[in-house]
Design brief:
Elements: H1 2-11, H2 13-83, H3 86-95, H4 100-140, H5 152-160, H6 163-185, E1 193-195, H7 196-210, H8 223-226, H9 240-257, H10 260-285, H11 299-303, H12 305-310, E2 326-328, H13 329-339, H14 351-355, H15 358-371
Antiparallel strand pairs: 1-2
Helix pairs in contact: 2-4, 2-6, 3-4, 4-6, 4-10, 4-13, 4-15, 6-7, 7-10
Length: 375
């Protein structure tokens, strides 16, 4: 019996070896596949949790961005009103008995300066806060335990740098814009009939002039309007290492602000905002009852036009294409000035559409992703 079994094994020894190798290999392969599948499943679960965490954190950062922009924009708006004060000139115009035309000439420049300043300041504010808050958000999301390497006090100092725009930055920006608006408007008569297209071209000329000089183009040199010099940054509560880290982050932010990509996005925001201004002005070109050309106003009519324009002295009539209507510049100026009045009870004319701008949102997401990568 045993000899037969021994002979059988001997005759089929090679088959048993091959079968054993095949079966053992299959078993090892199965175990290896099970292990890899388990690891893959674990990794997928971890990546899913990480993606969900980052997605929720990013959404939270976006909400914070929107809320911060909307809360700071009225302060920027108020700073512009104080820097370019048309209300004083309007009051002086209504009480003056002489030199009214001279006051009108000043008011003409101030009114268009204030609109342009609000357009540029809002665009800069939106880009600045998107970069700052997404940069901080990127640092905070690096570690699941919140150990981002960015101390709370450093975050506070870094984010508070935007107050420079509200203070001296807005004043510098308004002065720059007024220097460009002055030569464009000084030769435009107060009696000139302005169509909606003429008004749009006037804003285009202002934008083109502001952005034509490489050295003082605000969208190419945003950083100098939004950040104070390093020696004026309050670092009293920071350690030496934190001060170095702060200046490093500031330098990275400046590189982003002065980049061609940010300049392109800011230019798009500015153009979008000027288009919104023209759309708003179109409402005032519609209610005109005659397409017949009207003789230009006399100097006396120009001098007294503010009160009638502010009182909205227009007649009800049927719809007329705004492009076929003209308004003397003297009557257009108070309308333009009124657009920039600060009213806390209504939405800002431009800031909401800038907050929802897709280009700005995508850029903010890219900043978040770039600074959210673990080193």
């Amino acid at each position: 019996m045993f000899s037969r079994f021994k002979d059988f094994v001997s005759r089929h020894k090679r088959k048993f070896v091959v079968t054993g190798v095949v079966v053992g290999g299959a078993w090892l392969a199965l175990k290896y596949a099970q292990q890899k599948l388990h690891e893959y499943t674990e990794n997928e679960a971890k990546e899913f949790v990480e993606r969900s965490r980052r997605q929720q954190h990013y959404k939270s950062t976006e909400r914070t961005c929107d809320q911060t922009i909307l809360s700071l924009s009225p302060a920027i708006h108020e700073s512009i009103i104080n820097a370019v004060n048309t209300e004083e000139l309007a009051a002086e115009l209504q009480t003056a008995t002489s030199e009214k035309l001279a006051i009108w000439e000043k008011l003409k420049v101030k009114a268009f300066t204030r609109v342009a300043a609000l357009v540029y300041a809002n665009s800069i504010l939106v880009l600045l806060l998107r970069i700052q808050l997404n940069l901080v958000g990127g640092f905070l999301v690096r570690d699941a335990n919140g150990e981002s390497g960015l101390p709370t006090e450093l975050q506070h100092v870094y984010l508070s740098l935007c107050h420079h725009l509200r203070d001296s930055g807005v004043v510098d920006l308004c002065n720059l814009i007024e220097r460009h608006v002055q030569p464009i408007l000084e030769n435009v008569s107060l009696k000139k009939p302005m169509s909606l297209r003429d008004t749009e071209e006037l804003f285009w000329s202002i934008q083109n002039s502001i952005e034509s000089n490489v050295y003082d183009n605000p969208i190419k040199t945003i950083s100098k309007y939004v950040f104070p010099p390093k020696e004026k940054v309050d670092t009293e509560n920071l350690q030496d290492q934190e001060v170095q880290q702060l200046f490093s982050i500031m330098s990275e932010t400046v590189d982003l602000l002065d980049s061609d990509e940010v300049a392109s996005i800011t230019r798009s925001c500015v153009s979008q905002s000027f288009a919104a201004v023209v759309d708003k002005l179109a409402e005032h070109f519609a209610p005109i009852c005659s397409l017949e050309p009207v003789a230009g106003p006399s100097n006396e009519q120009v001098a007294n036009a503010w009160a009638s324009a502010m009182n909205g002295a227009t007649k009800d009539c049927s719809f007329i294409n705004p492009n076929n209507v003209t308004i003397p510049l003297a009557k257009l100026i108070p309308i333009v000035s009124k657009l920039t009045e600060l009213n806390h009870n209504k939405k800002d004319l431009w800031i909401y559409q800038l907050v929802r701008n897709d280009l700005v949102k995508v850029f903010g997401a890219n900043v978040y992703e770039a600074f959210g990568q673990k080193e």
